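Page 47, continued from p. 46.
Same chain as before, 504 aa.
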Amino acid sequence: MKMKRIVCLFLIAFMLLSSVACAQSTEDPTGTLNGDASAEVTEGETGDPNFTCDLPANLNYGDEIIGILYANVGGRRDELISEYGMGVVADSVYERNVMVEEQLGVQLEMYPADGDVQLNVVFTNDLTSGLGEYDIISNGTFKAIIPAMEGRYVNLNELDHINTDKHYWTQGYNDMVTFTDAGMQFLASGSMSISMFRYTFFTIYNKDLFMDYQLSDLYETVKQGEWTLDYQYSIAKDHYLDKDGDSKASVGDFYGFVTRNIVSVDPYMVASDTHMIIKDPDTGELTYNSDALSKLVDLCDKVQLLYNDESTYVYDGGVDDGMGAACIINHFADKNTLMATTTFLCMENNFERLGALSYGIAPMPKFSATQKSYYSYVQDQVSGFGISTAVSDEARQEMCAAVLEAMAYHSYRLVRPSYYETVLSERYMQDPQSNEVLDMIFDSLYFDFSSTCSDIFPNCEIRNNLRPLLSGESNTIAASTKSWKRIVEHKLDDYNEILEGLVP
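Result:
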């Protein structure tokens, strides 16, 4: 591996001589929809200014050290450093970092924190102590959003050396975290966030079992826009088998559908295009969307029907593999279910168990066939990057902005294709149809504020209350939402006021 990376240095030197420009994908800048996240890297070679960055070619900061604090957890621990990764992804992360250092004349110093909560503690202590050890902060969005909205990050839109409108930044994410009519943006995410791919939910299904049960392959159903919650239920139901012979539903039995009762509920909100918190397109203010309640009641009926059927097995669990995620893949790998809800991180962590199966993938199902598009949910774990307000010097802020810009561009050219095209597409997908669906999933990434930024609400008021309601046994959403509507609106008023106070 060391020899390989030494060789990479020569390649990097050549690339720096041939291209100092910076470049990513074709996301939709108009909303929270990410857009064409699967766009091939060759698009950046066409001369399209959206794929090239505008950093001055003569930037050189004299080997200045840039301190980057990051959460060393799960699907994010190898985004910034190569030591935790393996193979092509680790190599590309290493190459990316060297190219940034060589292009800008900086030294990247990475500081790991043991989790998102601990990172915020370290970050806060660094700010209050005045030490200013960390210039750039990378944390899961659900924990980054509060310090961002409270002004602990520099407004990226005031800096010249970063342009988050470029395609190597994720436009749907940018829109979600840009506030007020002044367009204040404290966080950004882009091609260096492999977590954006890893924490995306999808449906995996056993193609052989579908054939055995004379079910139509899901690919054509998806392609025709008919993959819906109702359709998923019609496939799942009537497929329970007491496989272990203990005369009761248990983990050893065969089911039509396997899922979880916590984080696997969240994707249905986004997949059905149902959003409880929306942003005013003119003012940037966050508002409670009471108009979504009627659809939410209907969504609850559909999800409950699926979750409570005898042909569905529901694991308990959150993010941790030990609390359900790995169990789902194991259940699927044992050929004890037709289909399951999972993430690409879980597939990555448990791929050896899947290798012997013939499987396909589908997006999360639509609310109905009339819904114009599939929408793919990205969990709140996705990395958000910002510049700490401990960096008070404007010249240093611009240096940090240049580092983020260069990292996003070189990640687009190196890291994103190594993960998306080599790992996901070539290794994990078994046929052209699955690759087509893979692109479909990532072309429809959607960032929902109430889910992705849930931590701004006391006890995650919306998300955590919706989970048991959606997957429960009785539809009490209409009545239940009245109890927390006032709390949520009050919190939104507080943060809108805070944000207005940050406007210069």
